[in-house]
Amino acid sequence: MKNPEGGKREEVIRERTEQAFGLVEDLFYVGVALALSLAGVGLFGYVVYEFFSNITKSPFTTLILALLDGLLLVFILTELIHSIRAVIDEKVLVSEPFLVVGVVAAIRRLVVVSAEAKELSGTPDFADAMLEMGILTAVVVGLGAVIFLLRHTDKSEPRPGHEPD
Question: Which long-range contacts (CB under 8 A, 24 or more apart) does 29-35 make?
Fold first, then answer.
């Protein structure tokens, strides 16, 4: 015959252990989000500073591409912070924010390759640049299709309460 007090005690221990590990997990998420936030703020400041400090020294198109590249990286960091917030709030890891990060990363690389392709025109490396751009375009379209399907399926992954429908 089981002791009812022993079962209740085990349940209390199990709940407290689960709460303690949940707190530790949340602390790690907050630490990562804080580090990403600091990196994003620092990168944003650096990109803007570099743009304005080199405005008379470098070609404007080069400056714009560097600014766009840096700001897209800041956007990636922001999406990752958003993902972490969703995990902390809802205790659910959703894939859509990571897919958006993939799309932005591919677009970021597309911008860089397309800028480099101008200088590569007429060289053997030009074909490689065009192939990379084609593959990156396919990746963007593929990830976009996956995001579309995730948003329009009946049995989608759980949506956090603060996500737009």
Answer: 29/84, 29/87, 29/88, 30/88, 32/84, 33/81, 33/84, 33/85, 33/88
Tens of pLDDT, residues 61-92: 889 989 999 999 999 999 999 889 888 888 87
- pLDDT of 156 strictly over 90: no
157 part of a folded domain: no
Is residue 165 in some structural domain? no
List Cα–Cα distances, 133 to 48, 50, 61, 123, in angstroms: 27, 27, 20, 16
Tell me what pLDDT residue 157 has.
57
Residue 87 inside a domain? The answer is yes
Note down the domain range covering 99: 4-151
Domains held by the chain: number = 1
State the amino acid at position 13 in one-letter form.
Answer: I
The pLDDT assigned to 7 comes to: 76
CA atoms 24, 28, 29, 34: torsion sign? positive
| 160 falls within a domain | no
The 3-state DSSP class for residue 74 equals helix
